[in-house]
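Example 5.3 — Modular FeS cluster scaffolding protein NifU
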Amino acid sequence: MDLYQQLILDHSKRPQHAGLREPFEAETHHVNTSCGDEITLRVHLEGEGSDAKVADVSYDSIGCSISVASASILAEEVIGYSVAESLETFEAMRSMLTSRGQDAGDEEKIGDGVALAGVSKYPARVKCALLSWSAYTDALARAGADISSISSHKTAQGGTQ
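Solution (predicted C-alpha cells):
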C-alpha cells in the first residue's frame, strides 16, 4: 500500500483532535449533500486581529475516510498557528484539491495534506476533502476572524449552524 493511502487510513482510523471541546468561539455544521458526509466543527482563538492564534479546533466528523482524514489533517495543520498562517494552509489545500491532478501539494505548507493530492482527480471526492476546511473558514468568520485574505472561490458545502 502506498504511503499516502496509508496516511489517509491512519488519519481516518485515528483522527487527531476529534471530539467537540470547550472553550470555543464558534461552531459550524456542514453537510456534503452529494454523499451525506457531515462535520460539526468548533474553533477556539486566542488574541485578536492579525495576531489571533488558533488555540484549538475540535470536531465531530461522520463520513468517508477522505472526509474524516481531511478533518484530522486540518486540525494538525492549523492548531498553534496564526489565523493568517492557517488561511495560507487552507489556500494551499484548496489549490491542490481543485487542480485536477496538476498540483501535487507543498508538504511544507500542508503536511500530511499531500496524501489527499490524488483526490483532485475525482471531482465528486473533492467535496469530501474540502468539507472540513469549508467548515473551518466558516467558523473563523463566525468567531470574528478576518478571512478576507482568502479568495472568493466558493467551497461552501451547504453549511448550517
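Remark. The mean pLDDT is 91.
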